[in-house]
Predict the 3D structure of the following.
Amino acid sequence: MAEDPSTPETTASTPAGRPSRTRLLIGLALGVFALDLVTKLAVVALIGPAENIRTLGGLVYLTNYRNTGAAFSFAEGATVVFSLIAAVVVVVIVRVARRLYSTGWAVALGLVLGGAVGNLVDRVFRDPGFLRGGVVDFVSLLEPDGGFYPIFNVADSAIVCGGVLGAVLALRGIEFDGSRDRGGEKATDDGPTTP
């Protein structure tokens, strides 16, 4: 017996029949968060605050630095502001996730979400206290102590990579539902449709 094409199972509210990418977003965010957390715990346990470990012939130094600013030590001292911004970003991404059918956007937002949560956990739970904690940064390139490039962590890298991917997707006109905005018309795999 043939299945009725109008049943909810076959006509799920997926644009052009695309499956939701929410699971991809959540899985990637959890992976980034877990990797960020494990690396920060290892750094705090194994590297002293003033210690620099030279690796890869001086290409990378591992250190234990507390950042009270944004990614890559930008705007240090504005911890509360960045904590609140990170919390808003998390809420916005979670809300957008319900209508996410683009693999590219799922990857971009998953990276940003995982990184934002990773750094937000540090700001909430590390000294000196709630929303003011220093984020553990530990990767320094070419010189110890961020002399060549600001010290960063896994979360910072994920946020930047997700942000760059999101910018590329937006510039290409790719929507969260996977369609392309072409001057007032949305093009899907099935051809252009009107909004």
Remarks:
- The beta strands are 52-55, 60-67, 135-141, 180-182, 185-188, 191-193.
- The first strand starts at residue 52 and ends at 55.
- The chain has one domain: 19-178.
